[in-house]
């Protein structure tokens, strides 16, 4: 490897790739980056990201806080390593051999949502740049696999994967918000607005909300008329429309090539 180029990597990224020598001092046998990250994730899964601190992790493991810093130098590095560990998913390419590109993309989106659902704290960490850690890049590679046989250039492939990832992130956040609402003791109707349907019908007027008004009055806005919903699941509907858009884009490209 080019050592000069390796030196340019952020420390957290270098740690994720195993490019940093372990400390010569400290509890070598009992302590490791993997154990620190695993403990941090367990705390975050149970209590949320705000509960994660170097002192809390050290206390849980039975070591001093300073001993942790010899392995993971900062909280930001720890968060990066936690995100990478959470992205350790396994989607075997062999299982996708008989799938068309649409089904592969569906599989990719659902895998992304599963990460967010399993680790709700994941989206609480600010995105600071392009993925550079191994597991995170593996997810990008899985997404690009669905575009492999499509007549797209590299920029188009990456943009489609970003679109799918963004949709998965948005849906995962909403699903987690709903779960938190229910765990807090609120009803599903308070989340959808169903519990407040009558009040909203009085508050929303056609002069102020001309396009929203008919949806509120019909009950669609608050899921009051859910049994008559012709589109089915909102998540599936949105995903299929994205895939329709990709398919339409591909047809336009083919048309241009013929001309």
UniProtKB/TrEMBL annotation:
PANTHER family assigned: HTH-TYPE TRANSCRIPTIONAL REGULATOR RUTR (PTHR30055), TRANSCRIPTIONAL REGULATORY PROTEIN (PTHR30055:SF151)
Cell membrane keyword on record: no
Domain HTH tetR-type positions: 30-90
Pfam families from the UniProt entry: TetR_C_1, TetR_N
GO MF, any single term: DNA-binding transcription factor activity
Presence of keyword DNA-binding: yes
UniProt-listed GO biological process terms: negative regulation of DNA-templated transcription
UniProt source species: Paenibacillus lutimineralis
Domain of life, source organism: Bacteria
PROSITE patterns: HTH_TETR_2
UniProt protein name: TetR/AcrR family transcriptional regulator
Transmembrane segments: none
Classification lineage: Bacteria, Bacillati, Bacillota, Bacilli, Bacillales
DNA-binding feature ranges: 53-72
SUPFAM superfamilies for the chain: Homeodomain-like, Tetracyclin repressor-like, C-terminal domain
Swiss-Prot/TrEMBL keywords: DNA-binding, Transcription, Transcription regulation
InterPro entries registered for this protein in UniProt: Homeodomain-like_sf, HTH-type_TetR-like_transc_reg, HTH_TetR, Repressor_TetR_C, Tet_transcr_reg_TetR-rel_C_sf
């Amino acid at each position: 490897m080019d050592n000069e180029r390796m030196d340019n990597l952020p420390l957290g990224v270098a740690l994720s790739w195993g490019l940093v020598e372990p400390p010569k001092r400290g509890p070598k046998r009992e302590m490791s980056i993997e154990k620190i990250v695993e403990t941090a994730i367990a705390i975050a899964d149970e209590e949320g990201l705000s509960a994660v601190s170097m002192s809390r992790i050290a206390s849980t493991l039975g070591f001093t806080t300073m001993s942790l810093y010899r392995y993971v130098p900062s909280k930001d590095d720890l968060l990066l390593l936690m995100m990478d560990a959470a992205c350790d998913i396994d989607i075997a390419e062999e299982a996708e051999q008989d799938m068309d590109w649409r089904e592969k993309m569906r599989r990719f989106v659902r895998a992304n949502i599963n990460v967010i659902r399993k680790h709700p704290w994941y989206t609480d960490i600010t995105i600071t740049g392009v993925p550079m850690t191994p597991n995170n890049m593996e997810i990008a590679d899985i997404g690009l696999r669905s575009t492999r046989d499509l007549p797209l250039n590299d920029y188009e492939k990456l943009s489609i994967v970003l679109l799918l990832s963004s949709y998965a992130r948005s849906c995962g956040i909403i699903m987690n918000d709903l779960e938190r609402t229910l765990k807090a003791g609120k009803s599903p109707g308070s989340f959808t607005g169903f519990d407040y349907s009558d009040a909203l019908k009085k508050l929303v007027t056609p002069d102020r909300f001309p396009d929203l008004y008919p949806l509120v009055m019909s009950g669609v806005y608050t899921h009051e008329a859910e049994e008559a919903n012709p589109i089915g699941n909102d998540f599936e509907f949105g995903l299929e429309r994205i895939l329709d858009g990709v398919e339409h884009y591909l047809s336009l490209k083919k048309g241009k090539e013929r001309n």
